[in-house]
């Protein structure tokens, strides 16, 4: 039985590789065609199919001018920020994250990380100049990591001052927000760092919808 399982796995590997190599193409009638930015955007919005959008940004099937890629990425950002449908917002965000790593083939669209860094740094606490530990800020910083910017998150955590542990009724404001807490939250999710109790004693819990 074990030999049969191994044999089937070996036989299916080329099929899986073939399917992945075609992922992102658009079916027109009986023919698979290369997606254009407009067609990819329409599929993402109408059907939450973001593989064509990833294929466009990573130039998986054809080469496009950087200006065209950037304009398309900006459209995805607009969808991510303004769509009333949560699934569509998530699909746009996922497309940018996947394009940043190009796991589906092609060339990584490295500006995806810069987009999420800018969005993260634009989220401010009402009382501080630093990004607050809010669902929005954590969502963008997690997207920085997911799109290939793990070095940015690690650097943010390592270079930001660690706030003191909270003493109920003594420290104000407490729990803390800010870069150390933001980056620590993402690294808890992704790398199991820092020590959970160290973070929980200092930082405001956050829930990302």
> Radius of gyration, rounded?
21 Å
Helix content: 55-70%
Read across the widest sheet, the strand sequence of neighbours is 1-2
The helix count comes to 10
The largest sheet, given as strand count, sense and whether it forms a barrel, is: 2 strands, antiparallel
N→C terminal distance: 43 Å
Summarize the structure.
This protein has 209 residues and is mainly α. The protein is 59% helix and 3% strand.
Model description:
- The chain has 209 residues and is mainly α.
- It contains 10 helices and 2 strands.
- It has helices spanning 2-22, 37-47, 51-58, 66-82, 86-101, 111-122, 135-146, 150-159, 179-190, 196-200; strands at 26-28, 31-33.
- Strands 1-2 form a two-stranded antiparallel ribbon.
- A hairpin with a 2-residue loop joins strand 1 (26-28) and strand 2 (31-33).
- Helix 2 runs antiparallel to helix 3 and helix 6 (111-122) packs antiparallel against helix 7.
What is the topology?
Elements: H1 2-22, E1 26-28, E2 31-33, H2 37-47, H3 51-58, H4 66-82, H5 86-101, H6 111-122, H7 135-146, H8 150-159, H9 179-190, H10 196-200
Antiparallel strand pairs: 1-2
Task: List its traits.
209 residues; mainly alpha; two-stranded antiparallel sheet; 10 helices
